Amino acid sequence: MPPAKKGSKQPETRSSRKKRRGVEDPRVINYEPESPVIREQEAAEVRRRGFRNAIWLIVGIGLLALGRIVWIEAFEKNEQFLLKKVLVNTSGPLSEQKIVSTTALTLDTNLLTLSIREVRARLERLPQVKSVQIHRAYNGLLTLDVEQRIPVAWLECARMNFHAARSGAGCLVDAEGVPMPCEVITKEYLALPAIRYDLLSEAVHGVPVTDRLLHTALHLMTELNARAQTPEERVTRLEIPNAWSIEAHFATAQPMVITFGVDDIEMQLERHDRLMAEARTRQWRLATVNFIARDNTPATFHGTPDVSGLTLAERQSLPTPADSSNAPR
Length: 329
Description:
Blueprint: H1 10-20, H2 36-76, E1 85-89, H3 96-103, H4 116-124, E2 129-137, E3 141-148, E4 151-156, E5 171-174, E6 179-181, H5 187-190, E7 194-196, H6 212-227, E8 235-239, E9 245-250, E10 257-261, H7 265-282, E11 286-290, E12 299-301, H8 312-317, H9 321-326
Parallel strand pairs: 1-3, 4-7, 7-8, 10-11
Antiparallel strand pairs: 2-3, 4-5, 5-6, 8-9, 9-10, 11-12
């Protein structure tokens, strides 16, 4: 073979061919040579490492088992941490027995492992419950502070089978417009006014009703009862016959119905105050009043009302202050 010319790449090609054939480059030093002794030492080291790992695993499992036994004996089976009494602080339609049964707790429940969040969620699913605070003392006492929704009226709706003062089918509503079922009828509930709203489209127990007319009726009922000076002036029933009017019925011996519009309630209440002040002074027995009319107030009476000095002719015939000052004495 002729010698390679200067600058030729032929030696490099031969060297790469030798490397590809598995021949090691004599210029490279192998610091980890393979030999039977070295392989035996490495195998022995792997066995020792596996043995140590197995020992640590066994020790860890033993410690976990021991800790579990200690936890069970010292805490879970310790009578000091078992539930002995449930104290309920509440006021409203739900009884204490109903609240305790809803928690699904038993006297062998461990207070350490008790999930407060789950117990609160069970109670807040009750439509009558507004909020819940739970406190546990590690002497066997669990305290439930339950804020209940206070009913202010009955809700009647034929479409939804809601009827006033009927256990099981009765529906109560609080000041925020949240309906709730009536399970037990008490004297306080029998004295509540009723709101009849057959056009109500949706009402779910425990969920605030978004209907504007119902909230307007609740506000009107509250304002009228706050203005009542005698038991006869208190509202016993509100009816919403359509989308523009609310009829208020009162506890008078003879029927009295006042019709309000759903808009400008505050202005209508001012007119109501002036009319009722005159009615008390003149002992009127009102039958019907309609505040929807803006220019006048149509009213009917039981019997003949005393309207002396109220007509335009009588007002014109009355002497003015200037005339009375010039009158002979």
